[in-house]
Amino acid sequence: MSRWTLIAGLMLATGMTQAAPEQVPLYREIKDWVVACDNLRGCQALSAPESFNYNPLGLHLQRDAGAQAPLRLYLRDTEQREFSPLLLDGKPLANAAALQQVNRDGEALLMAEGAGAQALLTELRNGGQLRMDVKGEDEAQVSLSGLSAALLLMDAVQGRVETRSALYRPGTRADSEVPDAPQAPRLRAYPGATPLGEDESRAIAEAVMAQTRSQWIEEDMGSEPEAEAFALSDHEALVIIRTWCAAYNCDFAVFRVNRQPPYAEQDLQLDPIPLEHGGDLSGWVSFEPRTGELAYLYKGRGIADCGEAGSWRFDGTRFQLASFSFMGRCAGGNPGDWPELWRTAEP
Hints:
There is one protein chain. The protein is an alpha+beta fold. It has helices at residues 3-13, 115-124, 147-158, 198-211, 213-216; strands at 26-30, 33-37, 43-47, 57-63, 72-77, 86-88, 91-92, 100-104, 107-113, 129-132, 141-143, 226-231, 236-245, 250-258, 265-266, 282-288, 293-299, 307-314, 319-327, 340-342. A hairpin with a 7-residue loop joins strand 17 (293-299) and strand 18 (307-314). The radius of gyration is 24 Å and the shape is elongated. It starts with a helix and ends in a 5-residue tail after the last strand. Mean pLDDT is 90; it is low at 1-17.
Protein backbone atom coordinates (compact mmCIF):
# COMPACT_ATOMS: atom_id res chain seq x y z
CA MET A 1 0.00 0.00 0.00
CA SER A 2 1.44 3.40 -0.99
CA ARG A 3 1.82 6.20 1.51
CA TRP A 4 -0.67 8.30 -0.49
CA THR A 5 -3.30 5.52 -0.18
CA LEU A 6 -2.64 5.06 3.54
CA ILE A 7 -3.02 8.78 4.24
CA ALA A 8 -6.25 8.98 2.22
CA GLY A 9 -7.66 6.04 4.19
CA LEU A 10 -6.74 7.57 7.54
CA MET A 11 -8.31 10.88 6.57
CA LEU A 12 -11.57 9.20 5.61
CA ALA A 13 -11.56 7.24 8.86
CA THR A 14 -11.19 10.43 10.91
CA GLY A 15 -13.83 12.34 8.94
CA MET A 16 -11.35 14.53 7.08
CA THR A 17 -11.70 14.97 3.34
CA GLN A 18 -8.98 15.68 0.84
CA ALA A 19 -8.99 15.23 -2.91
CA ALA A 20 -6.72 12.65 -4.48
CA PRO A 21 -3.24 14.01 -5.25
CA GLU A 22 -3.00 16.00 -8.47
CA GLN A 23 -1.25 14.32 -11.38
CA VAL A 24 2.24 15.61 -12.09
CA PRO A 25 3.92 17.17 -13.96
CA LEU A 26 1.42 20.02 -13.63
CA TYR A 27 1.28 23.46 -15.21
CA ARG A 28 -1.67 25.74 -14.49
CA GLU A 29 -2.40 29.45 -14.98
CA ILE A 30 -4.61 30.95 -12.26
CA LYS A 31 -5.52 34.62 -12.79
CA ASP A 32 -2.19 36.50 -12.45
CA TRP A 33 -0.20 33.45 -11.31
CA VAL A 34 1.37 30.33 -12.77
CA VAL A 35 1.77 27.10 -10.78
CA ALA A 36 4.26 24.51 -12.04
CA CYS A 37 4.98 21.20 -10.29
CA ASP A 38 7.54 18.71 -11.59
CA ASN A 39 7.42 14.91 -11.67
CA LEU A 40 8.94 14.82 -8.14
CA ARG A 41 6.14 17.08 -6.82
CA GLY A 42 8.46 20.02 -6.37
CA CYS A 43 6.30 23.11 -6.96
CA GLN A 44 6.73 26.72 -7.96
CA ALA A 45 4.29 29.61 -8.09
CA LEU A 46 5.26 32.62 -10.19
CA SER A 47 3.58 35.99 -10.60
CA ALA A 48 2.62 36.32 -14.28
CA PRO A 49 -0.05 38.84 -15.28
CA GLU A 50 -2.86 37.64 -17.53
CA SER A 51 -2.36 40.84 -19.53
CA PHE A 52 1.17 39.75 -20.64
CA ASN A 53 2.24 43.34 -19.89
CA TYR A 54 5.90 43.81 -19.06
CA ASN A 55 6.50 44.10 -15.31
CA PRO A 56 10.02 44.31 -13.87
CA LEU A 57 8.96 43.07 -10.41
CA GLY A 58 8.34 39.35 -9.97
CA LEU A 59 7.44 37.16 -6.99
CA HIS A 60 8.49 33.49 -7.01
CA LEU A 61 7.62 30.80 -4.45
CA GLN A 62 9.39 27.45 -4.39
CA ARG A 63 8.98 24.31 -2.30
CA ASP A 64 10.06 20.71 -2.84
CA ALA A 65 7.91 17.78 -1.76
CA GLY A 66 8.32 16.15 1.65
CA ALA A 67 7.70 17.15 5.25
CA GLN A 68 11.09 18.80 5.79
CA ALA A 69 11.24 20.82 2.56
CA PRO A 70 11.58 24.55 3.33
CA LEU A 71 9.48 27.20 1.65
CA ARG A 72 11.49 29.82 -0.25
CA LEU A 73 10.16 33.14 -1.45
CA TYR A 74 12.08 35.29 -3.96
CA LEU A 75 11.40 38.84 -5.11
CA ARG A 76 13.29 40.02 -8.18
CA ASP A 77 13.57 43.27 -10.08
CA THR A 78 14.70 42.47 -13.61
CA GLU A 79 16.00 46.03 -14.00
CA GLN A 80 18.36 45.38 -11.04
CA ARG A 81 17.76 48.70 -9.29
CA GLU A 82 18.32 49.28 -5.60
CA PHE A 83 15.48 47.61 -3.73
CA SER A 84 13.04 50.24 -2.42
CA PRO A 85 10.36 50.04 0.28
CA LEU A 86 7.61 47.50 -0.39
CA LEU A 87 3.97 48.49 -0.13
CA LEU A 88 0.99 46.17 0.20
CA ASP A 89 -2.13 47.93 -1.06
CA GLY A 90 -0.40 51.23 -0.41
CA LYS A 91 0.75 50.46 3.15
CA PRO A 92 4.24 49.38 4.29
CA LEU A 93 4.73 45.60 4.18
CA ALA A 94 4.70 44.54 7.82
CA ASN A 95 6.92 41.47 7.37
CA ALA A 96 9.41 43.09 4.99
CA ALA A 97 12.25 42.41 7.46
CA ALA A 98 11.98 38.70 6.62
CA LEU A 99 13.41 39.48 3.16
CA GLN A 100 17.20 39.43 2.89
CA GLN A 101 19.18 40.44 -0.18
CA VAL A 102 21.06 37.53 -1.78
CA ASN A 103 23.03 37.04 -4.97
CA ARG A 104 22.06 34.07 -7.14
CA ASP A 105 23.76 33.45 -10.49
CA GLY A 106 24.91 37.07 -10.57
CA GLU A 107 21.42 38.47 -9.91
CA ALA A 108 20.42 40.40 -6.77
CA LEU A 109 17.23 39.04 -5.18
CA LEU A 110 15.28 39.49 -1.99
CA MET A 111 14.72 36.09 -0.34
CA ALA A 112 12.81 34.76 2.66
CA GLU A 113 12.86 31.15 3.84
CA GLY A 114 10.95 28.97 6.29
CA ALA A 115 8.90 30.72 8.98
CA GLY A 116 9.75 34.17 7.60
CA ALA A 117 8.47 33.24 4.15
CA GLN A 118 5.35 31.70 5.72
CA ALA A 119 4.61 34.94 7.62
CA LEU A 120 5.03 36.97 4.44
CA LEU A 121 2.62 34.74 2.56
CA THR A 122 0.01 35.02 5.31
CA GLU A 123 0.18 38.79 4.88
CA LEU A 124 0.30 38.80 1.09
CA ARG A 125 -2.58 36.43 0.43
CA ASN A 126 -4.97 38.92 2.06
CA GLY A 127 -3.82 41.75 -0.22
CA GLY A 128 -4.44 42.81 -3.77
CA GLN A 129 -1.14 44.32 -4.93
CA LEU A 130 2.49 44.36 -3.83
CA ARG A 131 4.42 47.36 -5.10
CA MET A 132 8.01 48.56 -4.88
CA ASP A 133 8.14 52.34 -4.41
CA VAL A 134 10.34 53.29 -7.36
CA LYS A 135 10.22 55.82 -10.17
CA GLY A 136 10.42 54.66 -13.75
CA GLU A 137 8.54 54.09 -16.97
CA ASP A 138 7.22 50.72 -15.80
CA GLU A 139 5.52 50.30 -12.45
CA ALA A 140 7.19 47.71 -10.24
CA GLN A 141 4.20 45.81 -8.92
CA VAL A 142 2.90 42.27 -8.41
CA SER A 143 -0.78 41.43 -8.69
CA LEU A 144 -1.82 39.05 -5.91
CA SER A 145 -5.00 38.02 -7.73
CA GLY A 146 -4.95 34.21 -7.81
CA LEU A 147 -2.25 33.79 -5.16
CA SER A 148 -4.49 32.02 -2.63
CA ALA A 149 -5.65 29.50 -5.24
CA ALA A 150 -2.03 28.96 -6.31
CA LEU A 151 -1.00 28.21 -2.71
CA LEU A 152 -3.89 25.78 -2.24
CA LEU A 153 -2.93 23.97 -5.45
CA MET A 154 0.69 23.62 -4.29
CA ASP A 155 -0.54 22.17 -0.98
CA ALA A 156 -2.83 19.73 -2.79
CA VAL A 157 -0.06 18.50 -5.10
CA GLN A 158 2.25 17.86 -2.13
CA GLY A 159 -0.35 16.42 0.29
CA ARG A 160 -0.08 19.34 2.72
CA VAL A 161 -3.76 20.36 2.89
CA GLU A 162 -4.70 21.08 6.53
CA THR A 163 -1.22 20.28 7.83
CA ARG A 164 0.48 22.72 10.18
CA SER A 165 2.88 23.89 7.47
CA ALA A 166 0.29 24.26 4.69
CA LEU A 167 0.69 27.42 2.63
CA TYR A 168 -3.04 28.12 2.58
CA ARG A 169 -5.11 27.81 5.77
CA PRO A 170 -2.88 25.57 7.90
CA GLY A 171 -4.72 22.93 9.93
CA THR A 172 -4.11 20.43 12.70
CA ARG A 173 -2.66 17.55 10.71
CA ALA A 174 0.93 16.76 11.68
CA ASP A 175 3.59 17.61 9.09
CA SER A 176 4.82 14.04 9.46
CA GLU A 177 1.79 13.01 7.39
CA VAL A 178 3.13 14.86 4.35
CA PRO A 179 4.24 12.24 1.78
CA ASP A 180 7.89 11.96 0.81
CA ALA A 181 8.98 13.06 -2.62
CA PRO A 182 8.91 10.23 -5.19
CA GLN A 183 12.20 8.88 -6.48
CA ALA A 184 13.57 10.49 -9.60
CA PRO A 185 13.62 8.38 -12.79
CA ARG A 186 17.13 7.06 -13.34
CA LEU A 187 18.55 7.56 -16.82
CA ARG A 188 20.38 4.73 -18.52
CA ALA A 189 23.88 5.63 -19.64
CA TYR A 190 24.79 6.57 -23.19
CA PRO A 191 26.95 3.72 -24.55
CA GLY A 192 28.82 5.94 -27.00
CA ALA A 193 29.62 5.38 -30.66
CA THR A 194 32.51 5.55 -33.11
CA PRO A 195 32.29 9.09 -34.54
CA LEU A 196 31.50 9.67 -38.19
CA GLY A 197 34.38 10.67 -40.40
CA GLU A 198 34.04 13.93 -42.31
CA ASP A 199 33.31 12.20 -45.65
CA GLU A 200 30.82 9.76 -44.09
CA SER A 201 29.05 12.56 -42.25
CA ARG A 202 28.67 14.63 -45.41
CA ALA A 203 27.46 11.64 -47.47
CA ILE A 204 24.79 10.67 -44.93
CA ALA A 205 23.58 14.26 -44.45
CA GLU A 206 23.28 14.96 -48.17
CA ALA A 207 21.58 11.64 -48.94
CA VAL A 208 19.03 11.91 -46.14
CA MET A 209 18.25 15.53 -47.00
CA ALA A 210 17.54 14.52 -50.60
CA GLN A 211 15.50 11.43 -49.62
CA THR A 212 13.29 13.20 -47.08
CA ARG A 213 12.84 16.52 -48.89
CA SER A 214 9.12 15.97 -49.51
CA GLN A 215 8.53 15.60 -45.75
CA TRP A 216 9.71 19.09 -44.80
CA ILE A 217 9.96 21.28 -47.91
CA GLU A 218 7.71 24.36 -48.00
CA GLU A 219 7.16 27.08 -50.56
CA ASP A 220 8.97 30.38 -50.10
CA MET A 221 11.40 29.06 -47.50
CA GLY A 222 13.41 32.01 -46.25
CA SER A 223 16.76 30.21 -45.99
CA GLU A 224 18.68 27.36 -47.59
CA PRO A 225 18.27 24.05 -45.68
CA GLU A 226 21.34 22.72 -43.90
CA ALA A 227 21.98 19.23 -42.50
CA GLU A 228 24.36 17.62 -40.01
CA ALA A 229 24.88 13.92 -39.33
CA PHE A 230 26.09 12.34 -36.07
CA ALA A 231 26.87 8.79 -35.03
CA LEU A 232 24.24 7.25 -32.74
CA SER A 233 25.85 3.83 -32.70
CA ASP A 234 28.21 1.88 -34.93
CA HIS A 235 25.18 1.04 -37.10
CA GLU A 236 22.94 4.14 -36.91
CA ALA A 237 23.21 7.90 -37.40
CA LEU A 238 21.16 10.94 -36.43
CA VAL A 239 20.54 13.60 -39.08
CA ILE A 240 19.36 17.10 -38.09
CA ILE A 241 18.09 19.29 -40.93
CA ARG A 242 17.52 22.98 -40.29
CA THR A 243 14.82 23.71 -42.83
CA TRP A 244 14.13 27.44 -42.40
CA CYS A 245 14.29 30.22 -39.81
CA ALA A 246 12.01 33.05 -38.74
CA ALA A 247 12.94 35.94 -36.45
CA TYR A 248 14.15 33.94 -33.43
CA ASN A 249 13.14 30.32 -34.02
CA CYS A 250 13.98 27.80 -36.72
CA ASP A 251 12.19 24.69 -37.98
CA PHE A 252 14.00 21.36 -37.97
CA ALA A 253 13.50 17.83 -39.25
CA VAL A 254 15.28 15.05 -37.34
CA PHE A 255 15.87 11.54 -38.69
CA ARG A 256 17.39 8.33 -37.35
CA VAL A 257 18.90 6.28 -40.17
CA ASN A 258 21.19 3.36 -40.92
CA ARG A 259 24.83 4.34 -41.39
CA GLN A 260 25.09 2.26 -44.57
CA PRO A 261 23.48 3.14 -47.94
CA PRO A 262 20.63 3.51 -48.74
CA TYR A 263 20.44 5.07 -45.22
CA ALA A 264 17.03 3.59 -44.41
CA GLU A 265 14.98 5.67 -41.97
CA GLN A 266 14.28 4.17 -38.52
CA ASP A 267 11.80 5.08 -35.81
CA LEU A 268 13.32 7.89 -33.74
CA GLN A 269 11.96 6.35 -30.47
CA LEU A 270 11.70 9.61 -28.59
CA ASP A 271 10.08 9.52 -25.14
CA PRO A 272 6.99 11.79 -25.11
CA ILE A 273 7.03 15.20 -23.49
CA PRO A 274 4.60 15.67 -20.56
CA LEU A 275 1.40 17.73 -20.60
CA GLU A 276 0.47 16.61 -24.11
CA HIS A 277 3.08 18.80 -25.75
CA GLY A 278 3.64 17.59 -29.26
CA GLY A 279 7.39 17.42 -28.91
CA ASP A 280 7.97 19.24 -32.18
CA LEU A 281 11.70 19.72 -32.49
CA SER A 282 11.82 23.38 -33.39
CA GLY A 283 13.26 26.64 -32.17
CA TRP A 284 16.83 25.43 -31.91
CA VAL A 285 17.82 21.75 -32.02
CA SER A 286 21.21 20.26 -31.20
CA PHE A 287 22.92 16.92 -30.53
CA GLU A 288 25.95 16.45 -28.27
CA PRO A 289 27.94 13.41 -29.49
CA ARG A 290 29.94 13.09 -26.24
CA THR A 291 26.84 12.61 -24.05
CA GLY A 292 24.25 11.36 -26.53
CA GLU A 293 21.95 14.28 -25.66
CA LEU A 294 19.39 15.58 -28.13
CA ALA A 295 17.95 18.95 -27.07
CA TYR A 296 15.66 21.72 -28.24
CA LEU A 297 14.83 25.25 -27.09
CA TYR A 298 11.83 27.23 -28.35
CA LYS A 299 11.35 30.92 -27.53
CA GLY A 300 7.79 32.17 -27.03
CA ARG A 301 9.06 35.61 -28.00
CA GLY A 302 12.42 37.17 -28.75
CA ILE A 303 13.39 38.17 -25.21
CA ALA A 304 12.84 34.51 -24.15
CA ASP A 305 10.77 35.30 -21.05
CA CYS A 306 8.47 32.46 -22.12
CA GLY A 307 8.96 29.27 -24.09
CA GLU A 308 10.00 25.67 -23.58
CA ALA A 309 13.06 23.44 -23.65
CA GLY A 310 13.63 19.72 -23.43
CA SER A 311 16.37 17.12 -23.74
CA TRP A 312 16.72 13.38 -24.23
CA ARG A 313 19.61 10.98 -23.66
CA PHE A 314 20.16 8.11 -26.09
CA ASP A 315 20.65 4.73 -24.36
CA GLY A 316 21.52 2.71 -27.48
CA THR A 317 17.86 1.94 -28.22
CA ARG A 318 15.71 4.95 -27.46
CA PHE A 319 15.88 8.59 -26.41
CA GLN A 320 15.01 8.88 -22.70
CA LEU A 321 13.43 12.13 -21.55
CA ALA A 322 16.06 13.88 -19.42
CA SER A 323 14.59 17.35 -18.84
CA PHE A 324 11.63 19.56 -19.70
CA SER A 325 10.96 23.22 -18.82
CA PHE A 326 7.97 25.32 -19.83
CA MET A 327 6.60 28.82 -19.33
CA GLY A 328 3.49 29.55 -21.34
CA ARG A 329 2.90 33.08 -20.09
CA CYS A 330 5.35 35.83 -21.11
CA ALA A 331 5.86 37.51 -17.75
CA GLY A 332 8.97 39.62 -18.28
CA GLY A 333 11.31 37.26 -16.39
CA ASN A 334 14.89 36.44 -17.22
CA PRO A 335 15.59 34.74 -20.59
CA GLY A 336 15.14 30.98 -20.33
CA ASP A 337 14.14 31.14 -16.65
CA TRP A 338 11.25 28.71 -17.08
CA PRO A 339 9.87 26.26 -14.47
CA GLU A 340 11.48 22.83 -14.63
CA LEU A 341 8.78 20.15 -15.00
CA TRP A 342 10.84 16.98 -15.44
CA ARG A 343 13.84 15.92 -13.34
CA THR A 344 15.92 12.76 -13.50
CA ALA A 345 18.76 11.05 -11.65
CA GLU A 346 22.06 10.07 -13.19
CA PRO A 347 22.95 6.33 -13.50
